Amino acid sequence: SQQGEEDPQALSIQEGENATMNCSYKTSINNLQWYRQNSGRGLVHLILIRSNEREKHSGRLRVTLDTSKKSSSLLITASRAADTASYFCATDKSDYKLSFGAGTTVTVRA
Amino acid sequence: DAGVTQSPTHLIKTRGQQVTLRCSPKSGHDTVSWYQQALGQGPQFIFQYYEEEERQRGNFPDRFSGHQFPNYSSELNVNALLLGDSALYLCASTAVSTDTQYFGPGTRLTVL
User: Fold this and answer.
1) 3-state secondary structure A15-41
2) CB contacts < 8 A (A, B)
3) Sign of the torsion formed by the C-alpha atoms of A38, A54, B43 and B23
4) Using an 8 Å Cβ cutoff, are A19 and A76 in contact?
5) Which of these, A75, B21, B28, B104, could form a disulfide with B6 (CB 3.0-4.6 Å)?
6) Residue B29 burial (CB count, 10 A)
7) Could you tell me if A42 and B90 are in contact, meaning their C-beta atoms sit under 8 angstroms apart?
8) CA–CA gap between residue A106 and residue B34 (Å, rounded)
9) Tens digit of pLDDT for each residue in A84-107?
10) Pairing of the two strands A98-100 and A43-50
11) Above pLDDT 70, what percent of chain B?
12) Nearest chain B residue to A89, by CA
């Protein structure tokens, strides 16, 4: 069974716009990680946020975590064509076993 | 510094055959996990190896087995292949000092 669920399933935006996707999960976690996957290839790690953190930034990425609502969001600002990919959230209950959602497919139109 | 590597890149097998997939972890990492990703789905945890032993296992049948070698590299073996085993198999490595898991490029297995 999958711990995390991403919303929306798919997102289409114009280049330069911001993209926001959400992740909800069911049980307490140690950390939550976001990954990007291009065309069914390997997963690229984007950012890790721990359960005692509320917000983290990395370049054009901003991640928030609300443990009371068991939810996280990933914001990509000023999107580029190269941001076209599937994005996954994965939760870790401190046992190094990641539970993934089904992902959000983002398409950035030129 | 090489990242996680996997071989082969692609593999085609027929039902009933056996397959072995290989993974070399990122330098300095001692824990290797395997995931199965079916088309259009998120990765599903198969099992994890640490100190050459299976430390955790997901909801996969005994047809799926693995091994970790003293140099921390790992193999995933699948026996009696079924059509439903067709998927992208991903290997991830991590170390005790970090929570981040780094993934390899995956092996695409097609079972005919």
Assistant:
1) CCCCEEEEEECCCCCCEEEEEEECCCC
2) 68
3) positive
4) yes
5) B104
6) 21
7) yes
8) 26
9) 999 999 999 877 789 999 999 999
10) unpaired
11) 99
12) B42
Query: Which residues are within 8 A (CB) of B70 and not within 5 positions of it... i.e. 6 or more apart?
Result: B52
Compute CA distances A82 → A35, A74, A89, B105, whole Å. Answer: 15, 16, 19, 18
**What CA–CA distance (Å, rounded) separates A18 from A74?**
10
B49-89 tens-digit pLDDT: 999 999 999 999 999 999 999 999 999 999 999 999 999 99
Q: Do B43 and A2 touch (CB under 8 A)?
A: no
**CA-angle at A48, arms to A43 and A50, nearest 5°:** 145
What pairing do the DSSP bridges indicate for beta strands B87-94 and B102-103? antiparallel
Structure tokens at B82: 């079924």
Residue B9: both structure tokens together? 């890149």
Across the interface, whether the CB atoms of A96 and B48 are under 8 A apart is answered yes
Give the model's confidence band at A6: pLDDT under 50 very low, under 70 low, under 90 confident, else very high.
confident
